Amino acid sequence: MADWLKQLLPNVFTYQARFVTSLQQTLEMMLRSAVLAFSIGLALGIVLTVTRRGGIRPNAVVYRLVDTLINIFRSIPFIILLIFLIPFTRALTGTAIGIKGALVPLVFGCVPFYTRQVEAALAGVDPGKVEAARAMGSGTLGLIFRVYLHEAVPDLIRVTTITLISLIGLTTMAGAVGAGGIGSFAINYGQNQNYQDIVAVCVIILLVFVSALQLSGNALARRATNRALFRRARGG
Amino acid sequence: MIEIRHLSKSFTLKDSRVDAVRDVSLSIEEGEIFGVIGNSGAGKSTLVRCLNLLETPDEGEIVIEGRMLSFRDGSVFSGEDKKPTGEKEKAALRRSVGMIFQHFNLLDRSTVYDNIAYPLRYTGLKKEEIDARVRELLELVSLTDKIDAYPSQLSGGQKQRVAIARALANRPKILLSDEATSALDPDATESILRLLRDLNRRLGLTVVLITHEMAVIKAVAQRVAVMENGKVVETGDVYDIFTVPQEDITKRFIASASPLSKIDKLIAENSPTVHTGPGELLVRLSFRGKCAGEAAISKISRDEGVAVNLVLANMEELQGRSLGELIAVVSGGEKNIENALNYLKEINVKVEVLRRG
């Protein structure tokens, strides 16, 4: 079995160690940028929901500012954003390459997309629920945390899954400009050395990874629909 | 008591201005069930949402729960000295007035327990106190066995019960009901109306009930205001409104709640059931108050020699007073018919001739 595999995928075995390292790099890039991007995106999505016209704290200035910034960054293709941000990244982190250098463009590339997704998820919360909570005396924070975020959990899980998957795509592109990870591994060995077996294995691994993300995201979202995700002790 | 004085509220939709509530003055007594009826867009919902400041009126005054609120240029002022009212004060007012909605508006991801506990949390109450209060409320709305259920597992009527329990959590003296039975089937509607009447009696709860169905007003309200185009066109005791409606819109609402309203269709279709031969009359007789108890029909057919052929008849009880209506074809000669109708008018039966043969 092992021999047969070795014959089929000779280069994968030759560069086994690098392959594993590049997978680890991809995961690390994803996790670190996801934590940052999701915190910022969630906050901005809430800001948009709250300040839009007819929102719970309408504020045209704040809304338009955030809205415009997001539109600008969303319209720049990621590969161009990568180059565009190099000076800024260098100033911020001291380097524009490696995982550290990739973090800034990844966050910039991911936040606008995620913010829009969060905005859509929160817009799906029935305004009647918000109104009822207001009638019970809830203030802005109460409405955000106890109604909007609470009721939107299934949709938030869904959009987070989608964004995570698109983030994988971004990390591989970042690999093209020296960030490392599975993207640069596929380019350096698969493309430049023409080792087709490496490209094929990269594709399979990504396929499995994306499917696993999607399936678990769907399962969690389903679990959270019309019920609490984790049963709390009553009165908690 | 709720006192509304010269209240106005308008909305700007794109370029057009909608005057939702126009110079409305009303007073609602403590402990009564006060109905507000109107077609959709009449402004009744806006009016009631002004009462707990979900909408900020443009102008006017409201006295509610001992607070005097006045409105100018989209701002709220409280007290005789007209201090500007902050968000905290508005939230406090909202907590002292309960509200229920057409679509219940429960949190779908929270259990019945957590939905009812919602308004109690973050108010300084201890966990045990919240627990005890939630159980007490569940008992009040007869839903103790659903404590751990989610809204998706409940029927419409049960959801509205949870919403009522939630609205009463902070022991308000006033409950605003915005079309609370409009999304329910007839059985559930009846049980929710019974519950509201029961809460009104047991807790002395003042209920302001908005609806577009006269049947709902008839079933529970003591007094009613009829709204049209943002204005209150008629106010009064439900019995009086039913027996002597003044405005056209009121008459239409009453007709919609009366089984006798299908007579217009029968007449329009020239149905054989309303056929009037030469000299015969199709009449509508309304018996109200004392005369509703009299055997007037037997009397006229015996004493005046007229034949009374019943087409439709209905009898209702409104707050313990009866209200009877019947539609009949009367025959037996012009003179006799005239005597019979005169006798009926004498004993205060309202006689309306719908068609002459």
List keywords for this structure.
heterodimer; A: 236 residues; mainly alpha; MetI-like fold; 12 helices; 0% strand; flat; B: 357 residues; alpha+beta; Rossmann fold; Alpha-Beta Plaits; 2 domains; six-stranded antiparallel sheet; six-stranded mixed sheet; 16 strands; 32% helix
Please tally the helical runs of chain B, counting DSSP H or I stretches of 4 or more residues. Answer: 12
CATH class identity of chain A: Mainly Alpha
CATH structural fold name of the largest domain in chain B: Rossmann fold
Total of domains of chain B: 2
What share of the residues of chain A does DSSP label as strand, in percent?
under 5%
Helix residue percentage of chain A:
over 70%
Largest sheet of chain A: none
Structural class of chain A: mainly alpha
Strand content of chain B: 25-35%
Would you identify the CATH H-level superfamily of the largest domain in chain B? P-loop containing nucleotide triphosphate hydrolases
What assembly state would you assign to the polypeptide chains in this entry?
Answer: heterodimer
Rg from Cα of chain B:
25 Å
Mean pLDDT of chain B: 91
SSE-based structural type of chain B? alpha+beta
CATH architecture of chain A: Orthogonal Bundle
What is the CATH architecture assignment of the largest domain in chain B?
Answer: 3-Layer(aba) Sandwich
Largest interface, counted by CB within 8 Å of the partner chain's CB: A-B, 26 and 35 residues
Distance between the termini of chain B: 53 Å
In total, how many beta strands of chain B? 16
Give a brief outline of the structure.
By secondary structure, chain A is mainly α.
Verbal overview:
The complex is a heterodimer of chains A (236) and B (357). With 236 residues, chain A is mainly α. Chain A has a single domain, classed as MetI-like (MetI-like fold, Orthogonal Bundle), CATH 1.10.3720.10. Chain A contains 12 helices and no strands. Chain A has helices spanning 2-8, 10-14, 16-51, 60-75, 78-84, 86-93, 98-123, 127-135, 140-151, 153-176, 181-191, 196-224. Chain A starts with a helix and ends in a 12-residue tail after the last helix. Chain B has 357 residues and is an alpha+beta fold. In chain B, 32% of the residues lie in helices and 32% in strands. A 6-stranded antiparallel sheet of chain B has the order 2-1-4-5-6-7, covered by helices on one side. Chain B has a 6-stranded mixed sheet with strand order 8-9-10-3-11-12, sandwiched between helices. In chain B, β6 and β7 form a beta hairpin. In chain B, α5 packs parallel to α6 (186-203) and α11 runs antiparallel to α12 (334-346). Classes of the chains: A mainly alpha (236), B alpha+beta (357). The A-B interface holds A 126, 128-129, 131-139, 142, 146-147, 150-151, 153-154, 224-228, 234-235 and B 52, 54, 87, 91-92, 94-95, 97, 99, 101, 103, 105-111, 113, 117-119, 122, 127, 130-131, 148, 150-152, 163, 166-167, 169-170.
